[in-house]
Amino acid sequence: MTMNLSLPWTVLLIGGASGSGKTSVSYQVARHFGVGITEVDDFQVILEKMTTPEQQPVLHFWNTHPNPAALTPQEIFEHGVAIGRVMTPALKAVIDNHIESQQPIILEGDFIHPALAAQYSTHVRSAFIYEPDESQILANYSQREPQNEPQTFRAHVSWLMGEWVKQEAEAYGLIVLPSRPWHTLFTRLIASLDS
Description:
Layout: E1 11-16, H1 22-33, E2 36-39, H2 40-49, H3 61-64, H4 73-101, E3 105-109, H5 114-117, E4 124-130, H6 134-144, H7 152-171, E5 175-178, H8 182-194
Parallel strand pairs: 1-3, 1-4, 2-3, 4-5
């Protein structure tokens, strides 16, 4: 593990849709810099456990919706965006705490909105991983979860999220990296953080 004591950031946000390859590369980056990493999905689980459906209906939607299977990919994508919005104040508090304590960390996950990353001009860097090919996302799911049936519906939701994240991140002037070629993603990400 390399330890870089002169990091140009305190918090590194790595976002992107599910199935884009962001988690795999995030752990490589954490090892490279010798810093801790937290998956933002864990915060979603904590917030859901610590609140009621009345307090946070968006976070509890999947437990309270009478028939989630009836939703369209567009509706599920929109709900994913809504979860990210609800989680933004909590993520901001975590980011601000790490900036104050000067303890570097990488936060990785689907629910990191580019708008959150854009709030910071110092101490925080971000990169959003993007897979433009829906069939590749499906193949990624099949490789990651070979015991499951093909997840065409889920891959389409992920593709919709990826398109949205890419557009939002580019609008804020943030780093957006295509996930392929896979073998260069880590080096491209490190290089983009240095630039």
